[in-house]
Design brief:
rod-shaped; mainly alpha; 0% strand; single chain
């Protein structure tokens, strides 16, 4: 009985391990998709931010010039 019991226990462990490996593969694929989606969202946000900054510069060019101090202005 001990030999058969050990064999059955080992088979159960192999089956459970196989199931865990499969589940891990599914989880990894899902996480990879989530990372790709987040990368796309960040890329779109960067584009929107760059466009907003460009529009802001076009709308207020004089303000940007005043804010940027040259080397001679910093000594005052």
């Amino acid at each position: 009985m001990s030999l058969y019991g050990d064999a059955i226990k080992a088979l159960r462990q192999v089956i459970l391990l196989d199931e865990r490996v499969r589940n891990t593969a599914v989880d990894l694929a899902r996480m990879s998709q989530e990372v790709a989606d987040l990368r796309d969202r960040v890329s779109r946000l960067e584009g929107m931010l760059a466009a907003g900054m460009a529009l802001s510069r076009e709308a207020n060019p004089a303000r940007d010039r005043r804010r940027l101090a040259g080397p001679s202005d910093q000594s005052k």
